[in-house]
Amino acid sequence: MPARGRAVKVAASAIAPLVLALAVLGAVGSFATVRDMAEPWFGQLAWIVPIGLDIGIFVLLAWDLLMEYLALPWPVLRWVAWAFIAGTVAVNVLAAGGDPAGVVMHAAMPVLFIVVVEGVRHLIRQWVGLATGRRIERIPAARWLLAPISTALLWRRMVLWHVTTYQRALDLEYRHLLAVSRLQQRHGRWTWRWRAPLDARLALRWLPAELTGRSTPLPSPMEAADDPERDPPYDHGEEDRAEPFDEELVETTRRILAEASRQGMRLNRTELGRRLRALGFSIANDRITELRAVAGGDHEQRPDQPTSQIPRTEQ
User: Fold this and answer.
1) Cα 41–42–43 angle (5° rounding)?
2) Which of 191, 202, 185, 206 is nearest to 287 (CA)?
3) What is the pLDDT of residue 243?
4) Count of Cβ atoms closer than 10 Å to residue 32 Cβ
5) 243 close to 198: Cβ distance less than 8 angstroms
6) Tens digit of pLDDT for each residue in 251-298?
7) Which end of the chain is more exposed for a tag (fewer CB within 10 A), N or C?
8) How far apart (Å, rounded) are the C-alpha atoms in residues 304 and 229?
């Protein structure tokens, strides 16, 4: 890094005099033309007009670059400087009398000077953005090509929530998908958009902002796939878990548990959920224990204990 800093200083020391020389040559080249055009109105003081314009342009551009360096940009400075440069070029073009060669020669140096100054401004902006963490990384072109729609949504979230790093944006996107999948599991793949509680749906909009400062490690997709009972890293609160069960679902669960009890069987959570889904009910695995308690069933069997007929203990 120190070697890079020295290289930047050397390059800046070599480029700065060249930029200044370009500005001086452009000012000298247009000095006589602007002075002659201003002479009918200013007389012997016509020389004030070109010098004032050139000094004003230098001050505005230098001030604008300083503001960019301080991360306090104000575009008005640049726009006014461009307006003065455009006015100077227009005066020189009029003095050329419509000759194409004269028009090109009069406009060449001002345009070149603007391009150089904009290049310096872009360098300062990128440098300050990297130093302050405000610069948003670009999404790789290959992702745009392979998944344009999801990439556009990812870019939109990066801009809206000012997520500056691409990897952080991917982590937040993964967390967002997990939160959506949890709502889909509880309320249906498509119906969650209107069946889920309003606060849970609104929480999805604030998900990136809530997680921007989190330091908890993110579970990998393989870990999430191996452990389907694992809670996603984003929780919607106790209100979502306390959503009451449908009476028909409770009554059906009560009948299933009673029938299994008559047969001398105890159903674990997986088997109970499978039977309910076979009857057309939608229930998340993490709510089956709560549903069993509401239905008045016995204690849940351990997940590692197979579902089988278990003889009742004689009283």
Assistant:
1) 100
2) 185
3) 60
4) 13
5) no
6) 888 888 888 888 888 878 778 878 887 887 777 666 777 888 888 754
7) C
8) 13
Amino acid at 11: A
Q: Which two tokens stand for residue 188?
A: 């249906």
Indicate left, alpha or beta for 97 from its phi (over 0: left) and psi (-120 to 50: alpha): left
- Please classify residue 208 by burial: count the beta carbons closer than 10 Å to its beta carbon, then call 0-12 exposed, 13-18 middle and 19+ buried: buried
Q: For the segment 26-76, what is each residue's pLDDT rounded down to a tens digit?
A: 777 788 888 888 888 888 888 898 898 889 988 998 899 888 888 788 889
Strand spans (E) along 146-277: none
Six-digit token string for 266: 């105890």
Of residues 244, 288, 245, 296, the one with CA closest to residue 270:
288
H-helix segments, 70-99: 75-95
**Are 257 and 292 in contact, with CB atoms under 8 Å apart?**
yes
* DSSP, res 196: S
Give the separation between CA 197 and CA 193, rounded to whole angstroms.
9
How far is Cα 79 from Cα 118, in angstroms, rounded to an integer? 12
The number of CA neighbours under 13 Å toward the Cβ of 38 is 21
Q: Which of these, 144, 106, 82, 123, lies nearest to 30 by C-alpha position?
A: 106
Q: Could you tell me if 60 and 77 are in contact, meaning their C-beta atoms sit under 8 angstroms apart?
A: yes
Q: What pLDDT shows up at residue 161?
A: 82
pLDDT single digits (tens) 225-241: 444 444 444 444 444 44
